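Retro notes - structure team

What went well: the batch runner handled both jobs without manual restarts.
What didn't: labels got mixed up in the shared folder, which is why I'm recording both outputs here explicitly, each with its sequence directly above its tokens.

Job 1
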Amino acid sequence: MYDGITFDEGFRLDLLVEELVIVELKSVEMMNLVFQAQLLTYLKLTGQRLGFLVNFNVPLIKDGIKRVIL
């Protein structure tokens, strides 16, 4: 349920850590703004404030992590 509207379809988080942090996992050549929008939607729907977008298709994993705060 969001903004008074009930959706029959559900969404599936990749990871929810300690009921506090949402982690969205990807393995893509280029990050797309749609992925960040997806994470922002998950944050809004769950009421969480912190999320990480992690792309594993990079030489150094630290270069593939984006922190998103609502």
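Job 2
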Amino acid sequence: MFANLRYFLLPVLNITGPVLIAFACLLLLPVFVSSLYNDGAAYGFEIAFVLCLITGLTLYVFTKRHRRELLPRDGFLLATIIWAVTPLFGAIPLMLEIPGISFTHAYFESMSGITTTCATVLSGLSELPESINFWRCMMSWLGGMGILVLAVAILPMLGVGGSQIFRAEFSGPMKESRLTPRIADTAKGLWGIYIALSFACFISYRLAGMNTYESIIHMFTTVSLGGFSSYDESFAHWNNPNIEAVAIVFMLLCGVSFSLHFFAWKKRSIVAYFKNVECLSWLSIAALTTACATGLLLMSDTSLEPLHALRLAAFNVISVISTTGYASQDFAQWPASIYILMFVVACFATCGGSTGGGMKMLRVVMLVKYTSLQLVTTAQPRVVRPMVLNGQVLADKTVLSALSFMLLWLATTVLAFLGLLLTGLDATTAFGAVLGCICNIGPGLGAVGPNANFSVLTDAQLWLCTFCMLIGRLELVTVFVLFTRSFWRA
């Protein structure tokens, strides 16, 4: 048993070392921001940098002789370790620089950022040091495309293949697809598109009315579909239709698969978007949900102007269903039919390979197609009709994997909901908290709604929500497979 543990664990820890060293270097960026604004918070980041660097170097040096080519199962273990450990170092500056914050709250906040959930336990955000808000939002940006997808571009230099890592972290059911022959080039291409969209978002926010600092940190949490803000009132702080319009455009763009963005860029054509079933479904669902919410708002409040109702619905609906979590109004005060619709759609709306959370639209498309095929074969048993998606015949293994994932996702969500109920949380808050965390939306309903935060939860409730954020970002199987006996067998 211990021999198997050493065989699987030590090579993974050897790769964890360089990733932590790179993460330590990123901690120097908020040190620069702290010195730029003279906010007095540099010490916390310097301590975190030293601890993270020492840990990374120690793991790399002392496990070097156990280094080997990664196996498919190693990717799952590495992804889980990295996504559980990096928030630990990300939480250190929060614990040292925010008075009175506990370890549970700091780790929750850090995990929330890195998983792009961006549910917060903090209040008085505008009073925090600039470097702290910068770091919270930057963690969301790093987690958006994926820490390990970024690392895959560097790992070949260290002599380690990255396909197993890429599949373990990348979202969606089509993990085997490659945009380029080499997985490292695929990772570089995806991050290239991500950085280009980030720059465009920053410029757009700047032109729309935000200052430079606000533009940078809100760019971080828009393209990552995170939702952290430097203001408690989120986008209601500006009450600016131009800023909201910029956010809507980039939330829609980043809800599309970055693989599709990369393909469209290579072809220098937007035709690919109109031929992709998942992309069209995402945009159609966004438009339909917005239209429904607008109509329901107008029916519930006849004093609302139609254009103002459309503005409110468009921003808040797209923010929730894209799993971003910004708010321009307390949508929990809207008719229940609207916010329930928003949260249900958020469970599946964004595309696989996007920075969004939830089950992903492609799996729902597969479910619909599979169901329609079953109806056809029931009526005409002799008919043989393969499942075709975007002009390609899907293997039975891919379809069954997608359907199994959806069942596992639903079962996990129900169990987490029941777990929060057993801790004494009311049903509305428990429902909103679970969906907010496992779908990586951020704000929930009830006591954790858009005008509140998660600080009202007990430590036990926060740890359950933290676990939901982790498994939601890594799409459940990556984490759950570690708890099977077969995983640890040679």
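One thing worth noting from job 2: The mean pLDDT is 89.
We'll revisit the folder naming next retro.
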